[in-house]
Design goal:
The structure is a homodimer of 156-residue chains.
Chain A lengths: L1 E7 L5 H14 L5 E6 L10 H13 L7 E11 L2 H12 L4 E6 L7 H6 L2 E4 L9 H17 L8
Parallel strand pairs in A: 1-2, 1-4, 3-4, 3-5
Helix pairs in contact in A: 1-5, 3-5
């Protein structure tokens, strides 16, 4: 199974890019893994939030391939413990060729993205910055990999 | 009200220290704020997890002053949305002189720290690295400050 994290807009802060890179590198020891970012919407200040989400969605949806299993990182989604998420990921490895997680833009997801997704997962009741969520989610993915392999990273 | 984040062990990664510094700096525009870290336990490999938690706890408890309101960042705690957390923080500003949040070490908290705390807050059902949780929590604190001041950072 290949895992993809799709996100809108480049990661602005250098320190955050570095942290994200670190977990990316670690993840590739467990799964073929890739981050795909689509460009920020141009002239976002001159359009409504709804229009921005729609345009972001169009770009994100181009990343998807037929047969992908698509999961939104969305506050309306179901919540897992880290152990439950590891079990979820392990189950998917047997059923899915490409597992695509999508992190939303600053205003969340447009309707078309919701329609294209098979599932929604929520990391927390709290809202995190759409840039920081990438780092947070990658650490969870990495943690799940170490749980699946019974490596001593996660102290349950 | 002064806010303190107490944590065990220095933050290892330079990129993470940089991110934490950024949010610290932002926070000081809203509250007197300070991070207090206690040293990692020496020879941690030669003692049990319980002993390590106990020693970490002793050091953490020395940070506390009489009258502090002490809140553990603990997975057994109650969960808030970001808006609820902002309301919680605002309420505390009228009632508390020093609000101390404590982030645990790699194995969580010892019994003495649980006893010293007034409250427990959980960020997520998922477990995050005890180093990363500092960054994640600071972003929530900052977000709460912007919500209280009705500044345009949080898109609810």
């Amino acid at each position: 199974m290949k895992i993809v994290l799709a996100a809108t807009g480049k990661t602005d802060a250098a320190w955050l890019r570095e942290g994200i890179c670190m977990y990316c590198e670690r993840l590739t020891h467990y799964f073929p893994f890739e981050i795909r970012t689509v460009p920020d919407v141009k002239n976002a200040r001159n359009i409504s939030e709804e229009q921005q989400k729609e345009k972001e969605g169009e770009a994100i949806l181009k990343i998807l391939q037929p047969g992908d299993y698509c999961v939104l990182l969305d506050e309306k989604g179901g919540q897992f413990t880290s152990l439950q998420f590891a079990a979820y990921l392990e189950k998917k490895t047997h059923a899915v060729r490409r597992l695509v997680f999508i992190a939303g833009g600053p205003y969340g997801f447009g309707e078309a993205v919701y329609k294209a997704a098979q599932e929604k997962i929520s990391i927390s009741n709290m809202t995190f910055s759409h840039q920081l969520i990438r780092l947070i989610f990658l650490e969870q993915l990495y943690r799940a990999c170490t749980i699946i392999r019974r490596e001593p990273y996660h102290h349950g």
